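Q: what sequence does this backbone want?
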């Protein structure tokens, strides 16, 4: 093989020659001339440098008979890699239904249709069609939220962390906020209640112990600097054993006796009794308000099954104070969130059909026999593509709700277990197989446990698409 650098560099085609090749025509149409030209120019420059540094693989490429074809392919791969960094659909076979890292709750078709309508043109986001004057974006959601929760008023921001921050800053700036030590939660992404209070300009007043907090602890902590009493639902852990927790109604009575508001952060939040669906019971928003909470905050994209949002409901006087705070504008939601959340809330007006129409509830309540039948259909499909490298079997497993909701409540499910054939194969081989599954056109995301890749089939709906792309599995 010749190592003459000048000869090798001379074999590089010009940028224009590559751009005029038919193999790049669709890229030019899709990305534009300048973008493809710059990517091509960068590739050629890198090869010139590599050759000058004595890179043997670069020299072999430049001496190949199909040089132009290979260069066009490399340009295309660059754009493919760029596309892969954007949001992509995946198969969630992790066994976690509401998976934070995979976008949490899937939306019902009604909400998707509403998103398309909102995206396709102007809408009356802040325009009152009756008066012809500026309107309020909360108006699209407030009546629905009040109907479903029994609240006097409601407002919505971009997530529940923002909701808690806004409530604290609007109702207790510079004041003490009394909270039980057993409720000093930390959720995913290092969201810690003490840190949020500090950011809101409040002073945290911890009371009680991690396992026992009495009404007298709250009463003894109240002083002229107290801004509000707060309750935080421990949605991602449970304290069991020798415990004491003050009832919401007792805490509300104490707060109101001192002319203080009671704020309840329900975290995941639910509008319906989850025990109706065979799941562990969670306190509902309506129950919290009925027990005397003045303000309740909760998420839109967890158990509710909607888009990301932080929902704030409660007394009109306090919601008006929250809504008028300057921070509200920085945290407000856009037309897409309003459009999707409105349609999800409307589904709750028909509770008899909710489990069939709301994807998150449909997955959580999917019959075990349905999942077992799915596993029997998918087993030979996976075995035919992995037979030379791995054993594929059906294995019982447990699904979890996810996103901090109902942490002790797992669900009977079924998984495909993929185990390397080689007895000596360890974690490296499992990781290689898992990576190959994630590199499919629609990545398959499972979990590794007990020497196997487990693909929990609870959330699998499109079996045909999953089976179709397995032929592209590259190991």
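A:
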């Amino acid at each position: 093989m010749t190592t003459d650098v000048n000869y090798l560099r001379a074999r590089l085609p010009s940028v224009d020659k590559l751009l005029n090749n038919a193999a790049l025509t669709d890229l030019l149409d899709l990305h534009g001339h300048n973008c493809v030209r710059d990517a091509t120019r960068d590739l050629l420059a890198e090869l010139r440098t590599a050759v000058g540094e004595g890179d043997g693989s670069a020299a072999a490429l430049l001496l190949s008979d199909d040089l132009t074809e290979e260069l066009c392919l490399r340009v295309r791969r660059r754009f493919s890699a760029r596309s892969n960094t954007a949001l992509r659909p995946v198969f969630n076979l992790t066994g976690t239904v509401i998976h934070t890292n995979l976008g949490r709750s899937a939306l019902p078709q009604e909400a998707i249709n509403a998103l398309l309508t909102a995206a396709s043109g102007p809408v009356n986001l802040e325009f009152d069609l009756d008066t012809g004057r500026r309107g309020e974006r909360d108006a699209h959601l407030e009546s629905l939220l009040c109907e479903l929760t029994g609240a006097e008023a409601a407002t919505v921001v971009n997530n529940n962390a923002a909701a808690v921050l806004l409530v604290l800053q609007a109702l207790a700036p510079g004041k003490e906020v009394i909270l039980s030590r057993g409720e000093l939660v930390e959720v995913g992404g290092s969201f810690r209640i003490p840190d949020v209070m500090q950011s809101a300009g409040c002073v945290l007043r911890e009371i009680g112990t991690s396992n026992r907090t009495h009404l007298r602890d709250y009463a003894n902590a109240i002083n002229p600097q107290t801004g509000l009493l707060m309750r935080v639902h421990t949605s991602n852990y449970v304290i069991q054993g020798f415990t004491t927790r003050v009832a919401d109604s007792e805490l509300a009575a104490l707060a109101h006796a001192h002319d203080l508001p009671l704020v309840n952060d329900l975290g995941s939040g639910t509008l319906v009794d989850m025990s109706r669906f065979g799941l562990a019971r969670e306190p509902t928003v309506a129950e919290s308000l009925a027990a005397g909470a003045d303000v309740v905050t909760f998420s839109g994209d967890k158990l509710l099954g909607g888009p990301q949002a932080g929902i704030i409901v409660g007394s009109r006087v306090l919601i008006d104070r929250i809504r008028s705070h300057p921070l509200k504008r920085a945290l407000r939601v856009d037309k897409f969130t309003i459009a999707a959340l409105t349609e999800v809330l409307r589904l709750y007006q028909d509770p008899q059909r909710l489990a069939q129409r709301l994807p998150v509830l449909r997955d959580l309540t999917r019959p075990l026999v349905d999942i077992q039948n799915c596993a029997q259909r998918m087993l030979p499909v996976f075995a035919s593509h992995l037979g030379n490298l791995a054993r594929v079997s059906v294995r019982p497993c447990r699904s979890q709700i996810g996103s901090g909701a109902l942490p002790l409540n797992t669900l009977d499910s079924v998984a495909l277990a993929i185990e390397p054939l080689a007895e000596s194969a360890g974690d490296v081989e499992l990781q290689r197989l898992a990576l190959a599954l994630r590199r499919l056109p629609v990545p398959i995301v499972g979990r590794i446990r007990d020497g196997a890749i487990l693909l929990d089939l609870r959330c699998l709906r499109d079996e045909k698409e999953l089976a179709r792309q397995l032929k592209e599995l590259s190991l």
